[in-house]
């Protein structure tokens, strides 16, 4: 029969992903940043895990690796939209294809590297390099959260500080930025 959904989830990277994504969902709610949730073939791969903190978001099912066709209506209702933050799995499939489609539309794309994962770290790292080469910005959850807040005087800063207070778990990306990685030279 078809593989069970749990067999298709990344192993340890998914644990790191689960630990980081709820903070992004919480901050989006606190700052009233619009958020969209898509699910790749949920009938076969299963639904979004509750640990991601996406309650309140109505998932849009899709089979296309890019989420752009599934969110076309949302994009069309926001002509003022200039940038998008992306996180999820799999980096080399849905995140990469969505990034390339959004860049083609003229949008800035910020890929939340510590909240994107893959079953294969090679696929993940090569996809991140490709997105960077294509013009996407690679950022961390905390870096993007602080960029969204902008100022410690922000009325929601104390709440957001509670969300980012715990140090992020190791995302497995440190070697990527230590100079020895030929993908990022």
Automatic annotation (TrEMBL):
<protein>
    <submittedName>
        <fullName>Isochorismatase domain containing 2</fullName>
    </submittedName>
</protein>
<dbReference type="InterPro" id="IPR036380">
    <property type="entry name" value="Isochorismatase-like_sf"/>
</dbReference>
<dbReference type="Pfam" id="PF00857">
    <property type="entry name" value="Isochorismatase"/>
</dbReference>
<comment type="similarity">
    <text>Belongs to the isochorismatase family.</text>
</comment>
<dbReference type="InterPro" id="IPR000868">
    <property type="entry name" value="Isochorismatase-like_dom"/>
</dbReference>
<dbReference type="InterPro" id="IPR050993">
    <property type="entry name" value="Isochorismatase_domain"/>
</dbReference>
<feature type="domain" description="Isochorismatase-like">
    <location>
        <begin position="24"/>
        <end position="142"/>
    </location>
</feature>
<comment type="subunit">
    <text>Interacts with CDKN2A.</text>
</comment>
């Amino acid at each position: 029969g078809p593989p069970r959904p749990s067999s298709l989830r990344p192993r340890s990277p998914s644990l790191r992903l689960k630990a980081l994504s709820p903070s992004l969902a919480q901050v989006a709610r606190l700052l009233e940043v619009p958020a969209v949730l898509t699910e790749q073939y949920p009938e076969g791969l299963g639904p979004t895990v509750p640990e991601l903190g996406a309650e309140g978001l109505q998932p849009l099912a899709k089979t296309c690796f890019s989420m752009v066709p599934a969110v076309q209506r949302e994009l069309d209702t926001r002509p003022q939209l200039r940038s998008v933050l992306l996180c999820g799995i799999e980096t080399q499939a849905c995140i990469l294809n969505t990034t390339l489609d959004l860049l083609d539309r003229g949008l800035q794309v910020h890929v939340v590297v510590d909240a994107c994962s893959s079953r294969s770290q090679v696929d993940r790292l090569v996809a991140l390099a490709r997105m960077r080469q294509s013009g996407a910005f690679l950022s961390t959850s905390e870096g993007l959260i602080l960029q969204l807040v902008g100022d410690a005087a922000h009325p929601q800063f104390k709440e957001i500080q509670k969300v980012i207070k715990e140090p992020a778990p190791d995302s497995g990306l440190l070697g990527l930025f230590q100079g020895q990685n030929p993908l990022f030279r």
